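Hello Y.,

Per our agreement to keep a running log of every chain we model this quarter, I'm adding this entry. I've kept the format consistent with earlier entries: sequence first, then predicted structure.
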Amino acid sequence: MSLQSQIKNMKLLTDLLSQDLGYIYGEKESGPNGAKKQFHSTGRAFLSALGKDLGFAEQKVYSNKAGIACSGEVTLMGMWNEKSGLYIQLRQDLMDNICILYRSITHLRDYTGGENGYISLDTLKQAGYISLVFGFLQFREKFYDRRAA
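Predicted structure for the entry above:
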């Protein structure tokens, strides 16, 4: 995916995460082709391309649509090598204004990983896509430094 597409998708995701994705209009969530559905499809495409930009040797992207009163999550698990990787999850936390959770992982089935890090929606809106990529790449360098010590 091109840089311009990723910038566009990141803007769309921040716009979607700014509204209540779990809000119900009548019988269907956010309309027949609602914002929650758009969040999950755009989120999967965005995280898949982000994983490629981060240089993961192996990655998996999946989404959990969850129930009718919440946004659900879209998750990327990627490995730089056989022992170090990153777990990145897009989600909506209206109470704490958190939209990205991330942590180090040691394999693609590592669902607990290292210490959680968070990116708020406000921070994501201000940051550009390139800043997001470089931020995660710096995390990679810190992770390598810790493992080497």
